[in-house]
Amino acid sequence: MAETGTKTGALPTLPHSVVWSQGRAYVREGSLARVRWVGMDERGRARSLTDAELRRRGWSLTRGTG
User: Fold this and answer.
1) pLDDT reported for residue 7
2) Which residues of 49-66 are buried (b: 16+ CB within 10 A; e: fewer)?
3) Degrees to nearest 5, angle at CA 60 with 27 and 44
């Protein structure tokens, strides 16, 4: 992946990028007008997060406790 990020860096901007938050994978989906990070919650239900929500929760490019 060309872009790298940390919990305090910029989120990836490429479509279908994957980041990890609180042990769960989230995939970037949508157009420029409505971008969401889509993943599953602890009960297996679909969950979508905005960039701001994902930053508040913490995130990483690698699986971990982020």
Assistant:
1) 59
2) beeeebbeeebebeeeeb
3) 45
Query: What does the pLDDT read at residue 53?
Result: 96
One-letter amino acid for residue 42 of the chain? E
> What pTM did the predictor assign?
0.80
> Which amino acid type is present at position 22?
Q
Give me the residue label for tokens 């406790």: 65
Q: Which of 7, 51, 8 is nearest to 28 (CA)?
A: 51
Distance CA 59, CA 63 (A): 9
